[in-house]
Design the sequence.
């Protein structure tokens, strides 16, 4: 008799569960938008692509800040039942992704707060306009936000390349841990 696949699968030693996958792919989609907007900001200001994407940068970045906190909490709570890291390098790579996913929007939001301008992402009033700027916050943002954002992009490209390389090299194929049934082929 065919067995039905449970709708909500937990994390296990061979695959990430439904919640982990939902976090991973929703955030991957949002990060793709963020980097497209950042690239348009850097290379193609005053083009229709920039006009379309840049207004999404701060609201989507704020949403990502919330999602990464929830995702990190989920990962910590289920650490013992998730697929093991392939190597120490993979562990450090994932740690670096988490550190940057937290630091980049956090510094963006600090800069926004320090600017003393009001901020209402997705229409939700998060920061009120004030009189006085906070210089150290805007300076920190100017110094680090964009640079660390590009470092994060480089790490994401490395992460995707490694996932594909493991599959091609005949090493453990990690893709089924995050996509599909969880059975390596
Ligand atoms: C989650 C992730 C985020 C990523 C990956 C990200 C990435 C980037 C990158 C790579 C740049 C540089 C663009 C350039 O050099 O032209 C940038 C610029 C910028 N980001 Fe973000 N960002 C994020 C979140 C945020 C948030 C939450 C805010 C504010 C609420 C924000 C506000 C800005 C602003 C205002 C700039 C333009 C800075 C300037 O004109 O010098 N970002 N971001
Ligand atoms: C096409 C894009 C992507 C592919 C194919 C992909 C693939 C994968 C795979 C196969 C794993 C499991 C690796 C293992 O267990 O060794 C994984 C885990 C992970 N990925 Fe991605 N990924 C992509 C995009 C991203 C992006 C954009 C980020 C973050 C900015 C990211 C962050 C992570 C993290 C932190 C993990 C560890 C598991 C977790 O806590 O969620 N990935 N990814």
Sequence:
């Amino acid at each position: 008799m065919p067995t039905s696949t449970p709708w909500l699968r937990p994390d296990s030693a061979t695959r990430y569960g439904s919640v982990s996958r939902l976090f991973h792919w929703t955030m991957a989609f949002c990060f793709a938008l963020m980097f497209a907007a950042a690239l348009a900001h850097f290379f193609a200001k005053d083009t229709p692509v920039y006009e379309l994407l840049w207004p999404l940068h701060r609201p989507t970045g704020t949403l990502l800040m919330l999602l990464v906190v929830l995702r990190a909490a989920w990962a910590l709570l289920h650490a013992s039942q998730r697929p093991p890291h392939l190597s120490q390098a993979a562990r450090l790579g994932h740690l670096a992704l988490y550190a940057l996913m937290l630091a980049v929007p956090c510094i963006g939001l600090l800069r926004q707060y320090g600017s003393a301008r009001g901020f209402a992402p997705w229409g939700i009033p998060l920061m009120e306009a004030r009189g006085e700027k906070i210089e150290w916050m805007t300076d920190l943002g100017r110094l680090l936000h964009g640079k660390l954002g590009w470092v994060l992009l480089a790490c994401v490209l490395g992460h995707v390349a490694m996932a594909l390389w493991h599959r091609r090299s005949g090493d453990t194929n990690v893709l089924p841990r995050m996509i599909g049934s969880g059975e390596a082929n």
The two ends are 24 Å apart (CA to CA). The chain has one domain: 18-178. The CA atoms of residues 102 and 122 lie 20 Å apart. Helices lie at 18-43, 48-77, 88-114, 135-168, 175-178.
